Amino acid sequence: MDLFSFVKPKNELETTTDAKQNVPFVPDEMWTKCPKCNTMLLTTDLEENFNVCTHCDHHFRISTKQRIDILADSDSFVERDSELSGGNILDFPGYDQKLEKARESGKESVVCGECLIGGIKTVLCVMNAGFMMGSMGTVTGEKITRAFEYATENSLPVVACTVSGGARMQEGILSLMQMAKTSGAVKRHSDAGLLYITVLTDPTTGGVTASFAMEGDIILAEPNTLVAFAGPRVIEQTMRQKLPKDFQTSEFVLQKGFIDAVVSRDKLKATITRLLKIHGYKENKEAAQ
Amino acid sequence: MTAYEKVMAARDAKKLTAVDYIARMFSDSFIELHGDRRFADDKAIVAGLAMLYDMPLTIIGIEKGRNTKERVERNFGQAQPEGYRKALRLMKQAEKFHRPVLCLVDTSGAYPGIGAEERGQGQAIAENLMEMMTLKTPVLTILIGEGGSGGALALAVSDEVWMMENSVYSVISPEGCASILWKDSSKAPQAAEALKMTAQDLFDLGVVERIIRQPKAEDAAMFESLKMLICRTLEKNLALPTDRLTEQRYARFRKIGTAHLTQ
Ligand SMILES: [Zn+2]
Predict the structure, then answer these.
(1) Whole-number Å distance between alpha carbons of A36 and A47
(2) Assigned domain for A4 exists
(3) Does B129 touch chain A (CB under 8 A)?
(4) The complex's ipTM?
(5) Which domain covers residue A51, as residue numbers?
(6) Same domain, yes or no, for A181 and A267?
(7) Closest to A274 measured CA to CA, from A289, A261, A256
(8) 8 A C-beta contact, residue B207 and residue B162
(9) pLDDT digits (tens, 9 = 90+) for A222-277
(10) Which of A11, A46, A60, A183 could be cross-linked to B129 through a Cys-Cys bond (beta carbons 3.0 to 4.6 Å apart)?
């Protein structure tokens, strides 16, 4: 790490695409190219910076584990319902193979559990973009519903980080029904006077946007996150309309009045902790069990 | 009929629309109410009050229009956020006066346009799902044609959901499904089968309670028996304590599809 301190942010290597040629002795896997500004970033620097580009502030898509590591106090996360599975209920062609492939990146499109955030006991749901683009199937909806029910029973706040391409077609109508089920569970949690914070991450679309993503008491989003019901391609294709600049980014949706704040990844945990405290949640003396 | 033939039947421009059902069941008593009190009146949603025999009723329908002029005016039955907010306003009004709500659904989906996105289509649908789940008055939804995804569900978080025998209800259109999954929208018939979107499929999956025989336009007796069936169902639910009613509604959605889950 110290070896490479001379390529820290703000030197000329960061601004050129031929950065690698200037340091030929650094192996390939130590570099990650920012998909937005094309800067070659030292992978270790990127990781230290919450997987946010040090040059252009692009927020890289991260795994559920990385997300949990960012938000939960260290080693406090205890997963719930991790083994829940459903399989190919409608016998949809090709779905079994898709599920099998998706399971390389995790068991399902959401991980739910209990953790401490700034010492405060919180139920945390983190969607998994790697699993069929975070699409919402029966297991996804069931895990989220159970997480809210558990939070309601135990008077706990919920933080949900969304990333989703929308419904899971291979589960047909059962996928659609997850929108109603999760919304019902959110409503009961809300009626019990408990706090629900959503964190929209790129991309949050379709059936997830039209259900629990938009139902938080407080809705936060990472910078430059796509937040949409109908995605930009759908609109362009079906309506043949040219889209306004920055359409459906979190900044755009903020300006239209549908989210509370755009918060960069390095400030997320502190922001959520403050919100939990403002709502009267106290630090837990014993560890979450 | 194959699943895709049912899709075609559900989209048939000659079939009865929401205003036809309202006219035939409530002709003289229907009073239309307009607007979401926030932005506009969405004509894709036709809503108002009527008497069902001696029971006051709130009716909310998605209307596709019966001819080209009407279809343009009604935005082909694709509601915008203000349409869903108008529906919610009238549901909350029904709750206040403790009168039941009847929703008639016929839409290919919520409108996917720039304005609809700017005004929070996702938020509008989400709010309806949340609020309907605990609405303290009976809600019954009948799918009379197309039930297109979230745009249909936003009027279908109900105590019971019924489907006309030739209606369909799906998370995505078979054409959309075929083009996304198989890059070939001509495979829509296969997608229609795979999606399990016919009334019989959905009844078997426990998503709907009843399949209703499609009434013919001129068959007054069929509309009368449909009216009586609606009345009996709403009366039964109106007699329940409201917390029982909302508990049952939650349980209804809570159990769908869960039989297949394994821990
Ligand atoms: Zn960058």
Answers:
(1) 17
(2) no
(3) yes
(4) 0.97
(5) 18-60
(6) yes
(7) A261
(8) no
(9) 999 999 999 988 888 877 778 888 999 999 999 999 999 999 999 999 999 999 99
(10) A183
- The more confidently predicted of residues A105 and A144 is A144
Question: Residues A91, A41: one domain?
Answer: no
Question: Which of helix, strand or coil describes residue A136?
Answer: strand
CA nearest neighbour of B104 among B198, B205, B25, B184: B25
How far apart CA A217 and CA A221 sit, in angstroms, is 13
Judgement on whether residues A213 and A284 belong to the same structural domain of the protein: yes
With CA atoms as reference, the chain B residue closest to A236 would be B113
Q: How far is the CA of A214 from the centre of ligand 1 (A)?
A: 28
pLDDT tens, N- to C-terminus, chain B (263 residues) = 999 999 999 999 999 999 999 999 998 899 999 999 999 999 999 999 999 999 999 999 999 999 999 999 999 999 999 999 999 999 999 999 999 999 999 999 999 999 999 999 999 999 999 999 999 999 999 999 999 999 999 999 999 999 999 999 999 999 999 999 999 989 999 999 999 999 999 999 999 999 999 888 889 999 999 999 999 999 999 999 999 999 999 999 999 989 889 88
Q: How close is the Cα of A269 to the center of ligand 1, in Å?
A: 22
* B121 contacts A210? CB cut-off 8 A: yes
Q: Which chain residues have CB less than 5 Å from ligand 1, an ion?
A: A 34, 36-37, 53, 55-56, 58
Q: How many CB pairs under 8 A join A and B?
A: 175
Report yes or no on B168 lying in a domain: yes
How many structural domains are present in chain B? 1
